[in-house]
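Reviewers of the previous submission asked for a worked example of the structure-prediction workflow described in the proposal, so we include one complete record here. The input consisted solely of the amino acid sequence. No template or homolog information was supplied to the procedure at any stage.
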Amino acid sequence: MTQAVYTEVTKNATPTKRGWTMNRMFVVLGAGTLITAILFEFGLKIGPEILPGVPGVVFAIVLVFADAAWIYLAAGILLSVLPLMVLFLFGALEGIADPTQGRSFAALMMLVITLLVALPAGVRGFLDRRHGAGLHVSETLQSKWGAITIGLALVLVGAGVAGVAAGQITKEKAASGGGYDNIVAASTAAVTIKDFAFGPTDVSVKSGEIVEVTVVNEDTAFHTFTYEIAGKSFSHDVPAGTTVNFLAQFDAAGSIPFWCIPHSNGTPVAEGDDEMRGTLTVS
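From that input alone, the workflow returned the following structure tokens.
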């Protein structure tokens, strides 16, 4: 007896709608934090500095409407370009340890979030999409990786907010300080901080005179004007976008190095160190 075998084939089957996955959400979130970082640092004065971040944002927007595997990978990698350049190539990573930089500190936190969220999500999204896997948004909090990522992002956002508050307090303190009664400066000296450099780097003052020193910070980063006399250190905080004035008197002729604590090695003299430093020449 021959047994008939029947195979049932369903034609024109409708594929299951994928919806939003956790990785898709995180890549788009990374684009949002990158845009936030740019606005924190530059405001609406957008220039060529942000160009490395544009392709990643574009691919993240494309990902909103199409979740092809290669779009995940492209968006994740391209969104990481600007954070990597700023944090490592431009040496801004050390700024993470200084919350008094205010908006610049918050921008750094946003860049870190972008790097930690977008790149892993882009790679995982690429792999999951190729294998038809991936957790949906509703399942995100139930996954260990999703909960850790969201928790870390919230911590960094909180640190950024605290940094903005700390920077504002420091800025107000600098703006309100430095008042002197019944003391008249015999001369003045001015130093401008721009593009992470002092200008001029050689400032001349006269011995024995009371000098009013004005330090103008045109950068968006926190700096200091620090010098040392006879083993005693004097340091003045110069928050981003502020002008700080102080009175000083130099009794002996000679050369007095000055430097920025966050952007030098923190010592008055260092062989081969051409970072943020200059010289007060007392004559």
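Residues 87 and 93 are 5 Å apart (CA to CA). We consider this example representative of the routine output the project will generate in years two and three.
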